[in-house]
Automatic annotation (TrEMBL):
Protein name per UniProt: Peptidyl-tRNA hydrolase
Subunit structure: Monomer.
Biological process (GO), any one: rescue of stalled ribosome
Active site (record annotation): 19 (proton acceptor)
Organism: Alteribacillus bidgolensis
Gene assigned in the entry: pth
Highest classification ranks of the organism: Bacteria, Bacillati, Bacillota, Bacilli, Bacillales
Amino acid sequence: MKVIAGLGNPGRKYKDTRHNVGFAALDKLADDLGLSWKEGKKSLIAESRAGGEKIFLIKPMTYMNLSGEAIRPLMTFYDVEVENLMVVYDDLDLEPGSLRLRLKGGHGGHNGIKSIINQLGAKEFKRVRIGIGRPPEGDSVTSHVLGTFAPGDKKAVEETIHLSAEAAEAWFTKPFNEVMNHYNRKN
């Protein structure tokens, strides 16, 4: 089994914010696959199959900083190894329109990733990082991540969201290294 988690904050208020690009990527993937979301424990879940393997898409409804509290119960219930988890999320250190896939790593200051690492007790999960850029000098990080994209960045970010969904789907049947080599790109 594989689990693909998209990080974001629930509610209409946060829908188009920078912090919700992980949700947007999973919505795109679910739409491309014709899947519908169902309520799970602290999450929305969609299910698919590929190559004889069950695939779960999950959007934590716990708010970003507690994402691990929604992902861990699913992983535990289905006995999914941490290496079979992919997390799609926003990254301040990448420019809008940039996409980076990684095999594993630390939290890099991202509270959603920190929560997942703390809940799972491991860092060895796949990451799909969507660039949102840093705030201008003097602006707060919180205001930036909870704000919307500038009109000039919107098209590049939408393209990156589509590519993120494609990359996640490619991982259904291809080794992650191959997917990573194909989809890593800069703005």
